[in-house]
């Protein structure tokens, strides 16, 4: 059986988030989110700011919190851009001026998801930077 693509341009955000979930659980699947981000599981550990061994326990609270932060930031960016693919590209590649030119992915990995969300909120409300 072939899995459906996990993200497509202009995907419905609720569907996007639902597709990150492990079937039959409320957990975000490390495998699925790594596929969406286009990284190996080891790369996901880096992007989520967790030890690679943490991925062996997908239901661990710390891992789930970090994966939820990744999903929340991408969802917020997708709401602004109207396109999940663009949001993922921004998340991984676009330096944020007010944060030492680090990407959203780097900031989230360092535990600063709140700062990224504040940045997105500022952009949504017309701030520049």
Q: What does the secondary structure layout of this molecule look like, with pairings?
A:
Blueprint: H1 13-20, H2 30-37, H3 41-48, H4 61-81, H5 84-93, E1 95-96, E2 102-103, H6 104-109, H7 113-124
Antiparallel strand pairs: 1-2
Helix pairs in contact: 1-4, 4-5, 4-7
Task: Describe the structure in brief.
The protein is mainly alpha-helical and 129 residues long. It contains seven helices and two strands; from the N terminus they run αααααββαα.
Write up what this structure looks like.
This is Antitoxin Xre/MbcA/ParS-like toxin-binding domain-containing protein. It is a single chain. By secondary structure, the chain is mainly alpha-helical. It has one domain. Strands 1-2 form a two-stranded antiparallel sheet. Helix 1 runs antiparallel to helix 4, helix 4 crosses helix 5 and helix 4 runs parallel beside helix 7. It is globular. The N terminus is likely disordered.
Number of domains: 1
Structural class: mainly alpha
Question: Count of DSSP helices?
Answer: 7
Shape: globular
Question: Can you tell me the residue ranges where pLDDT is under 50 for at least 5 consecutive residues?
Answer: 1-11
Work out the radius of gyration. Answer: 14 Å
Strand order in space, largest sheet? 1-2
Number of strands: 2
CA-to-CA gap between the ends? 46 Å
Largest sheet: 2 strands, antiparallel
In percent, how helical is the residue content?
A: 55-70%
| Beta-strand percentage range | under 5%
User: Helix and strand succession?
Assistant: HHHHHEEHH
Mean pLDDT: 85
Organism: Novosphingobium indicum
Protein name: Antitoxin Xre/MbcA/ParS-like toxin-binding domain-containing protein
């Amino acid at each position: 059986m072939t899995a459906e693509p996990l993200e497509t341009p202009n995907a419905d955000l609720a569907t996007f988030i639902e597709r990150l979930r492990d079937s039959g659980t409320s957990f975000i699947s490390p495998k699925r989110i790594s596929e969406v981000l286009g990284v190996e599981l080891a790369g996901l550990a880096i992007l989520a700011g967790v030890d690679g061994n943490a991925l062996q326990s997908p239901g661990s609270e710390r891992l789930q919190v970090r994966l939820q932060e990744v999903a929340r930031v991408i969802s917020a960016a997708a709401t602004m851009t109207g396109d999940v693919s663009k949001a993922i590209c921004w998340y991984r590649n676009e330096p944020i001026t007010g944060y030492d030119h680090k990407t959203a992915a780097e900031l989230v990995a360092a535990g600063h998801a709140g700062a990224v969300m504040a940045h997105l909120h500022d952009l949504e409300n017309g701030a520049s930077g």
